[in-house]
């Protein structure tokens, strides 16, 4: 499977070149176009319970689409939000991804939800993480551009929860307030995630929650005068 990511970083789109017999699984609604010779199968991936947990808890579609080529074909995918797309080649490993950032992967990669308990994300910024496990290519998306941050022992990294895209399993994380109660309520930052250990965190330059906080007050109310 070969790929090309174009229109980066604001309106990224991925073009996948599939040989006969090759397949890719994507989030529902991600397809932009495809050439002839591609069969599409839509199903609740992993069964009813796993699909329900991804949908209700992980913020992903209940159904996923699997595209399989019967001849050399091209498939184009794009995320729902304007931003970038990034390729990760998993080798018998796990990558944690924020809800809404999963775009596509090899069907051999398991996509599940993981509850972080007391360590997880609160405040509408992702209570559950998506857990990508296995071997093969995976593609994640962002709102805005993607930055890569390296975490090393003795040098933790603090990230606003709304700006997290993905992180490696080797990292530990804790969620806490940005400061005291006043800072949490009025600074506009909400909660932050502190990563420790050794590994990589990928962040996005825009936050969907921050955008909604800006947009919603500007929308006309239902009882406004005509």
From TrEMBL:
Pfam families: AIM24
InterPro entries: AIM24 (IPR002838), AIM24_sf (IPR036983), Trp_RNA-bd_attenuator-like_dom (IPR016031)
Name assigned to this protein: TIGR00266 family protein
The organism's taxonomic lineage, starting at the top: Archaea, Methanobacteriati, Methanobacteriota, Stenosarchaea group, Halobacteria
């Amino acid at each position: 499977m070969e790929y090309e990511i174009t229109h980066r970083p604001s309106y990224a789109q991925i073009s996948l070149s599939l040989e006969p017999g090759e397949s890719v699984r994507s989030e529902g609604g991600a397809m932009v176009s495809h050439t002839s010779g591609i069969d599409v199968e839509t199903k609740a991936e992993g069964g009813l319970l796993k699909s329900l947990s991804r949908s209700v808890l992980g913020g992903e579609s209940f159904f996923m689409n699997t595209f399989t080529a019967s001849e050399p074909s091209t498939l184009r995918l794009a995320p729902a939000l304007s931003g970038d797309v990034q390729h990760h080649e998993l080798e018998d490993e796990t990558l944690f991804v924020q809800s809404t950032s999963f775009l596509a992967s090899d069907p051999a990669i398991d996509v599940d939800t993981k509850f972080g308990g007391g360590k997880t994300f609160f405040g509408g910024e992702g209570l559950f993480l998506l857990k990508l496990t296995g071997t093969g290519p995976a593609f994640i998306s962002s709102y805005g551009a993607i930055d890569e941050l390296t975490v090393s022992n003795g040098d933790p990294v603090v990230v606003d929860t709304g700006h997290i895209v993905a992180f490696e399993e080797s990292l530990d994380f804790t969620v806490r307030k940005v400061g005291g109660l006043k800072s949490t309520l009025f600074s506009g930052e909400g909660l932050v995630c502190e990563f420790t250990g050794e590994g990589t965190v990928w962040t996005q330059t825009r936050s969907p929650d921050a955008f909604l906080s800006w947009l919603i007050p500007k929308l006309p109310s239902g009882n406004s005068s005509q």
